[in-house]
């Protein structure tokens, strides 16, 4: 397999992913865990603009309604968003891959029944299951959270991974079952190879590239579910809720993750469009980066098709063309005369 680092698609996607992930830790280390707050801008002793401030050199993505810098909030929350999405997909694959191989090899006779039981799950939005299971964990009660941010993120990752494990396991099981019917697998069975050896020596190496692509697809799907939960005001790491009946603030994200930033600012789309557009653009860039990495990895596995170079064509003048035609006619006449002499 050619190195994936020679593929521009993979390098492009990895660069965007590393910028947000590594940049989030560096940004917090340099500027601290809390974004700067600017209530208003003044010029010549007069207030010219109040929060939310529009984008400027000082605030590239503007500020929110409380004066907090949106770029700082996006950078601080990038690590929570990326790590959570990759964690959900990783846990999902760790559980689904062994189950899928078991469905495709050990439970072949029951595979039709298993698939018929799992198929209805394709038509049920995973956001509904996620919301019902995560609401008791992420919605802040009146007495406050009894868990830390990272503990809630771990619980969310595990629950969101378990929800779609049957669907992913069914896909892997169907692919493993097709490979299990191949002739080289039958030859291995004839020579005495057991199912564990067939899985580790044949099925897994043959499906390794497809599993990587499936992992990337699960990361993208998780990011989409995060945005849906954000619109439902259920944020990664927990939703801070104010129960003050007189001066209560709307629900907001604790970890500044992108789903929370998008969901809490979506109602400002018409009046202050830069508030929801910032997290939405970052979500789009992250999904584009993962898709580019998948495309680059696929190209590296399959090999890059090289386009043959065109041969250089020399243009001849009309005199040269006439001279070549004369030479060709003379040679044809000589050949004709030689044949006539041979007949005589």
UniProtKB/TrEMBL annotation:
Pfam families with a match to the protein in the record: BPD_transp_1
ABC transmembrane type-1 domain: residues covered: 97-301
Keywords, sorted A to Z: Membrane, Transmembrane, Transmembrane helix, Transport
Entry-linked CDD domains: TM_PBP2
Main location: membrane
TM region(s), chain numbering: 9-31, 80-108, 120-138, 153-172, 211-236, 274-294
Subcellular location(s) per record: Membrane
UniProt source species: Psychrobacillus faecigallinarum
Name of the protein: ABC transporter permease
UniProt-listed Gene3D superfamilies: MetI-like
Recorded topology in the membrane: Multi-pass membrane protein
Keyword Cell membrane tagged: no
Matches recorded under InterPro entries: MetI-like, MetI-like_sf
